[in-house]
């Protein structure tokens, strides 16, 4: 996996092979990045915009990628930053307090024609929406994607201890919400 | 997972699956849509500068800075204090011209000519005395014996 990515990076940095290598990179990571973003913004159209922005940014900054982290970690970090920037811009546009995009995201969830979960899954998503952005991000990455704390630490630039605490708090809050809305 | 069962039993009962779906053929088409957008972005990007321009850039920048300093200091002085600048400039020019003239004369003449010029100017000074003044100067500064000796030598 790592050697595959190293070869891909070398091709991406070579002007003659860049286009083809970029196509390979998109094909390889588009789904994982899509679901990572989708779980944060919920709506498909927003996810599509953010995913495109993520790959455009990757294209523009591949020359500066110093391979201090794995390609996967680097891509996740860009996607995460793009997602947070998008959510913050929505908050600014709707004049919401910086920690509260819940209403906007709940509307996104309800109006999304591509949501096909049952009642309990809708409830779980509502509970996740009530979490602060960072906790939501950590919970999604751990609970759904099962990303290791060490890797998550590199992506989010946060210590493993803080991530574990964040996940624990998030799980407790969700449990409480599920219990109270029974 | 067992930790989650203990801490959040209700959460652990929920089936861990994505409740979302994507439009048909979304991932198949995504790459080509991205490619179209990338082409637009590439056209909007500034073209990379040539190597010569990149190498000369620091020197050009330095020259431009000097020019800017000159324009910001000299030009306003010239515009707002024209009299002061004119005076200074003429003084500098005069000094340089006089110095140049003296130097060129000194370079051209040899030692003999130089002393001849000096003695000429001395004669002129002597011519300025009249006989009476000369006589009184000699009688007051020299004894008769000294005058006799000088006359005898000649």
UniProtKB/TrEMBL annotation, chain A:
Signal peptide: none
Any one GO molecular-function label of the UniProt entry: sigma factor activity
The family this protein is said to belong to: Belongs to the sigma-70 factor family. ECF subfamily.
Protein species of origin: Tangfeifania diversioriginum
TM ranges: none
SUPFAM superfamilies associated with the record: Sigma2 domain of RNA polymerase sigma factors (SSF88946), Sigma3 and sigma4 domains of RNA polymerase sigma factors (SSF88659)
UniProtKB keywords: DNA-binding, Sigma factor, Transcription, Transcription regulation
Domain RNA polymerase sigma-70 region span(s) in chain numbering: 25-93
GO biological process: DNA-templated transcription initiation
Tree of life domain: Bacteria
Protein name: RNA polymerase sigma factor
Sequence ranges assigned to domain RNA polymerase sigma factor 70 region 4 type in this UniProt record: 122-174
């Amino acid at each position: 996996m790592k050697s595959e990515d190293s070869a891909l990076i070398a091709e991406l940095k070579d002007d003659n092979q860049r286009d083809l290598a970029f196509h390979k990179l998109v094909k390889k990571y588009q789904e994982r990045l899509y679901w990572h973003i989708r779980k944060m913004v919920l709506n498909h159209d927003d996810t599509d915009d953010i995913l495109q922005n993520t790959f455009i940014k990757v294209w523009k900054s591949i020359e500066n990628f110093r391979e201090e982290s794995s390609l996967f970690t680097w891509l996740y970090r860009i996607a995460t930053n793009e997602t947070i920037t998008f959510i913050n811009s929505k908050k600014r546009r709707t004049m919401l307090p910086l920690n509260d995009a819940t209403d906007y995201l709940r509307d996104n969830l309800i109006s999304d024609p591509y949501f096909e979960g049952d009642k309990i899954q809708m409830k779980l998503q509502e509970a996740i929406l009530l979490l602060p952005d960072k906790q939501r991000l950590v919970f999604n990455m751990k609970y759904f994607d099962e990303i290791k704390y060490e890797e998550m630490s590199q992506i989010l630039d946060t210590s493993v201890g803080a991530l574990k605490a964040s996940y624990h708090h998030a799980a407790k809050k969700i449990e409480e919400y599920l219990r109270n809305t029974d | 997972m067992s930790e989650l069962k203990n801490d959040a039993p209700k959460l652990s009962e929920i089936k861990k699956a994505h409740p979302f779906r994507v439009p048909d053929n979304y991932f198949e088409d995504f790459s080509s849509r991205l490619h179209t957008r990338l082409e637009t972005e590439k056209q909007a990007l500034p073209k990379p500068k040539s190597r010569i321009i990149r190498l000369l850039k620091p020197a050009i920048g330095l020259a431009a800075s000097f020019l800017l300093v000159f324009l910001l200091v000299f030009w306003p002085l010239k515009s707002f204090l024209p009299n002061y600048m004119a005076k200074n400039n003429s003084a500098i020019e005069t000094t340089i011209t006089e110095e140049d003239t003296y130097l060129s004369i000194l370079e051209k003449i040899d030692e003999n000519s130089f002393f001849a010029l000096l003695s000429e100017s001395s004669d002129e000074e002597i011519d300025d005395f009249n006989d009476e003044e000369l006589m009184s100067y000699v009688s007051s500064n020299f004894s008769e014996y000294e005058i006799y000796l000088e006359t005898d030598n000649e």
